[in-house]
Amino acid sequence: MGTTAGEPPAVHPAVLFIRRPGAPFSNAMHQRFRVLDSVASGEPLAAFLAAAAAKPDPPRAAVIMGGGVVRADASFLDAVLSIRCLVSTAAGVDHIDLAECARRGVAVANSGTVYSADVADHAVGMLVDVIRRVSAAERFVRRGLWPVQGDYALGSTLRGKRVGIIGLGNIGSLIAKRLEAFGCVIHYNSRGPKDSVAYKYFPDVHDLASESEVLVVACALNKETRHVVSKDVLEALGTDGIVINIGRGASIDEAELVIALKEGRIAGAGLDVFENEPAVPSDLLSMDNVVLTPHSAVFTLESRSDLCEHLICNLEAFFSGKPLLTPVLP
Amino acid sequence: MGTTAGEPPAVHPAVLFIRRPGAPFSNAMHQRFRVLDSVASGEPLAAFLAAAAAKPDPPRAAVIMGGGVVRADASFLDAVLSIRCLVSTAAGVDHIDLAECARRGVAVANSGTVYSADVADHAVGMLVDVIRRVSAAERFVRRGLWPVQGDYALGSTLRGKRVGIIGLGNIGSLIAKRLEAFGCVIHYNSRGPKDSVAYKYFPDVHDLASESEVLVVACALNKETRHVVSKDVLEALGTDGIVINIGRGASIDEAELVIALKEGRIAGAGLDVFENEPAVPSDLLSMDNVVLTPHSAVFTLESRSDLCEHLICNLEAFFSGKPLLTPVLP
């Protein structure tokens, strides 16, 4: 990486950078690539892409930020036909049309395991928070109610709780490892059973929910997992059940979740992701049995730095004709 | 326990029950003992104790609730000279004058390990909360700021963090076990090194703080540990340091902690206990880098039930002349 002293500086390859306003990473990128930055351009997306495509050396790679700001689909790829590689800043690639990329032979990489430990930590933190009512007790203290009203309402213990994890990939496995240390009993649903773990496998999410007191959504969002936590699954989880979602908002039927919470048909929820984020259903904002974070499970100072390095390595691999570090489509 | 069918019912022994208003446990106690309940009596403590002492069969045992409502000291023991056994509802017995009890031959039992796992869970939950800014991000979401201001400020990761635990007893050990699963590096201070663990031992709390990014207070409160987290220790912990306290408020010099937080000389704190609870220093109530819970680390539905059984077993052991289950003074 970089230029050896004495060699003439390499011409930096052009890279499209599709990000949200205020999102980081561009500085380090600028040191390695000629960055065509969607936000810095100040142009609407269509005009920005047209200008990029019209350059004498149009970009062959694009970094696409997760979070739904731009969907890399057929019309996106049509707009800049030079693009042969997409690198997602997220582990999930639901914002990239993989079928279309495969058809065109466009390589796709994701963020690999850069975020996994932080997301697992956040998931477990949210579960402790919901079940032990930490944020709710926090509000009670900050409002000055402790001296007035005395003890705060009891939560439940974690030990012995049956936790059903939907999606036992890298993140799900790290959540399981942490929750084992709390004495939880781990069950899981995944595309298939994993030989590497002794946890009980449930081929059906409904059955998993029936056997669980906590349901953790840690799967990728795709056709099969959209609204996988349905009204029926919430019903199966039951009135003492808690839902944690650190995957994607649309893996839960959010409208049904809100109704179940309002009607006390489940006990609580910890949600880092939402179907139409940053919009959060207003009914949730006044509930004491939910913990709501702004898609921040992935964000730490350390993961930001790791991601930056990871993005650059994937792009450098692509430009030097080497295999991507974390290919979703090679 | 209980009466065998056919035998005449045993006369239930009298037990003093010193509790806070609204505190639970009395129902199950009533089934086994003639409970003299400080709250139900409606009398001031002195009158209540005098009335108990004047009974034809005065109580030989007392249950003393933790939380500082009554201190079982020489004047307390003088008021009801029949008392030969004190059972604390807490693991800590800083509300019981042990030297005075020892001098008089009054047996003392605590709550043993009934709460340990729940307290450890809460400590870890608070640490995740502080370091990942969960409660603060929660407020950001509930105030509707996410769509307006975008990404919330980054927290730090847990993995690799050096955590110094003050007091590696039952609770401290369970905290360590959980944090190992998060990839933290555990150091500790205790009365002496423990052969059973491989964590690095620091005989001095100041040195422990110097080598730690997180300091967890999990020790008993006594003369040696009062204000063990002093101004100097906070200084040694440093500007990136986080303090978690699930022990007793007075183990930290609270006034110095507030100053250190205000001046940014430490990064944050998660506090379940306070020097003058339920009073919480008002400066803390507006800080976003602290998490404040109302001495609720011990409280779960399950621990309440376990405690009740544990109290009854200790009392029945005492009344039948058997060894206490969890003696502090035998």
Automatic annotation (TrEMBL), chains A, B:
The keyword Zinc does not apply. Residues 124-297 form the D-isomer specific 2-hydroxyacid dehydrogenase NAD-binding domain. It comes from the Eukaryota. GO terms for cellular component: cytosol. Transmembrane segments: none annotated. GO terms for molecular function: glyoxylate reductase (NADPH) activity; hydroxypyruvate reductase [NAD(P)H] activity; NAD binding. InterPro entries: D-isomer_2-hydroxyacid_DH, D-isomer_2_OHA_DH_cat_dom, D-isomer_DH_NAD-bd, NAD(P)-bd_dom_sf. Residues 61-328 form the D-isomer specific 2-hydroxyacid dehydrogenase catalytic domain. SUPFAM superfamilies: Formate/glycerate dehydrogenase catalytic domain-like (SSF52283), NAD(P)-binding Rossmann-fold domains (SSF51735). Keywords: NAD, NADP, Oxidoreductase. Belongs to the D-isomer specific 2-hydroxyacid dehydrogenase family. This is Uncharacterized protein.
